[in-house]
Amino acid sequence: MPELKYKRILLKLSGEALGGEAGFGINVSEAEAIAKRVKEVHEMGVQVAIVIGAGNLWRGKQGLDRGMDRATADYMGMLGTMMNALGLMDALERQNVYTRVMSAIEMRAIAEPYIRRRAIRHLEKGRVVIFGAGTGNPFFSTDTAAALRATEIDADVVIKATKVDGVYDSDPKKNPKASKFDTLSYIEVLNRRLEVMDSTAITHCMEHNVPILVLNLWDAEALPAALRGEKIGTIVNGR
User: Fold this and answer.
1) Contact 213/197 with Cβ under 8 angstroms?
2) Using CA atoms in the order 167, 173, 179, 184, what is the torsion angle rounded to 10 degrees?
3) Closest of 34, 47, 60, 37 to residue 4, by C-alpha
């Protein structure tokens, strides 16, 4: 068993990760592909917690543009994260990975209420924990939920899963000369307005010294290599 640089991680997934090429709805094949990635690192001995967004099911901006109340739009998004969490839980358990979904909003029929000490105990027992319903409060994103839960469970790193191999100074799909960063400080991310996570999440990680690693989850080797300490993706820290 190789020495691990990170032994407890918070994996942040966008809702679109489950949407497949269409980017909308829950694609069972995509859920299975993500579950296989998680299973691989789980079998390395890594404790895995997950926060997932809901952009594949609900875009609050669409409602806001039509005059919807912001809090209502955000609560709808929280419900969307629970649908994604249950879909991912099912995919993981079909891979024989014991999984628990914990919700920031009580839904006792389908998920455990979020209790910090219980979440940590699940991780210690080798279960994957999926945190649903964001922070449980409107006006906060799932990026912020990921940063908050990472500090609460004392995660070694927040891993932001994307479909590019790190953070660039411009969109590499539009600019072939875009330059990739190997490392960044929290302040640089904020000052450059780089789209790593939202500013509240970045500030929270900065205040609590939680590193953020941005990598391509769809590269089969990237996540295991990063956990072994290899230079993968872009690391955001205090430098």
Assistant:
1) no
2) -10
3) 47
Residue 102 β-bridge partners: 112, 131
Task: Cite the beta strand spans of the chain per DSSP E.
Answer: 8-13, 47-52, 99-103, 112-113, 128-132, 157-162, 167-168, 180-181, 183-185, 212-216, 234-237
Cα(233)–Cα(214) distance, rounded to whole angstroms?
A: 6
Are 11 and 99 contacting, i.e. CB atoms less than 8 angstroms apart? no
Name the token pair of 54.
């809901």
- Are the beta carbons of 149 and 140 closer than 8 angstroms? no
How do residues 170-180 score in pLDDT, each as one tens digit? 888 888 889 99
Question: Which tokens belong to 8?
Answer: 């407890």
Structural domains in the chain, sorted by start = 8-237 (3.40.1160.10)
Reported as a single tens digit per residue, the pLDDT across 68-86 is: 999 999 999 999 999 999 9
Predicted TM-score (pTM) of this structure: 0.94
DSSP state of 64: H
Residue 47's closest CA among 102, 118, 128? 128
